[in-house]
Design a protein that fits this description.
Blueprint lengths: L1 E7 L4 E8 L2 E3 L3 E3 L1 H10 L2 H24 L5 E5 L10 H12 L6 E5 L2 H4 L2 H14 L2 E7 L6 H4 L6 E4 L11 H16 L3 E4 L5 H10 L3 E2 L14
Parallel strand pairs: 2-5, 5-6, 6-7, 7-8, 8-9, 9-10
Antiparallel strand pairs: 1-2, 1-10, 3-4
Helix pairs in contact: 1-2, 2-3, 3-5
Length: about 230
Amino acid sequence: PYFQPIVDLKTETVVGFEALARWQSNKRGFVYPDDFIPLAEETNLVMAIDFLILEKSCLQLKQWEAICGRNDLYVSCNLYGNHFFSATLPADIEEIIQRVGIKPSQLRVELTERALLENSDLVLENMNTLKVLGVKILLDDFGTGLSSYAYLKSLPVDILKIDGVFIRNIHLDEIDRAMAQSICDVGHTMGLKIVAEFVENKQIMDILKSIGIDFAQGFYVAKSQPLSMF
């Protein structure tokens, strides 16, 4: 995993990290996700990759806790939609959490809309079981595609990540700003926290603060980096 720091916009302190799968191949050199994730999905290897990244990230979080003397950091891991179609998902994640020794609340799992559109009963059951366990659930790329406030009412989601299409030019486009503000306001009304990624400069950071976004990540905060850079 590479790790990208996430900051609390009120304090500008690091509160967590998103874990991102990267591949340093002995034969191919550095392979970008766009080059290997589609093939991993096609062959179903993506499921194993996700759990490998999740476990390695939880282990690293445990080490950072010891080094920093903090127990409030978290790691956020992406899960391929098909995970939520598996009845064993909550037990699989709980086993990793217990074996590593972190608190469930220190893990965020990120899913996209696709998982919500298929096998909805099982997906909802898995989400509810994870929430009871204490794992935080983040809905990624919110605001485009089939995103709907209506289905948020029935989903046990804790965090919304605003789609980057509204963030990259928020300092230049009033419509993007209005859309981000709307998502933030409705999310907060529903008791959700809001994350913005693709924070590329101070202007964007200042606007996100002004409209009430809770957390931010992006090049202006810090690039995703291998463990050796921390």
